[in-house]
Amino acid sequence: MRIVYGVLMSLMLLFMAVQYNDADGLLWMAIYSVPALWCAMAAFWRQCFYQAPVRLALWGSVAMSVVGVIYYWPLTPGFWRKSVWFDVETAREGMGMMIVLAVLLLVLRALPSRVNQGSTS
User: Fold this and answer.
1) What values do phi and psi take at 73, rounded to 5?
2) DSSP E strands: which ranges in 1-121?
3) How far is CA 116 from each of CA 50, 110, 113, rounded to the nearest angstrom?
């Protein structure tokens, strides 16, 4: 999975790079930086996910991306067709948020399945 997270991080960084000439490019660079950071942590610093604040922040990022998907959901019919999203900015933004959510959901796999809470005896 380390390679998958590395590839996803690179993809998010590439998404950030192509925002340079967009009118709201800084906003989208910030949005794409969130999954890029989480992918970097999952690929190169996995032990950080044992800390409760980090897990909480990841779940918060997922929740915010769900809100973003709802907010940016494209209302254009057939938004997934290339002929539509190639020309319609709102379709691209909505699909971008869907990608952010999908990447963050994959990062959730990096969470330890069981966190040692200490001894109970």
Assistant:
1) -55, 125
2) none
3) 9, 16, 10
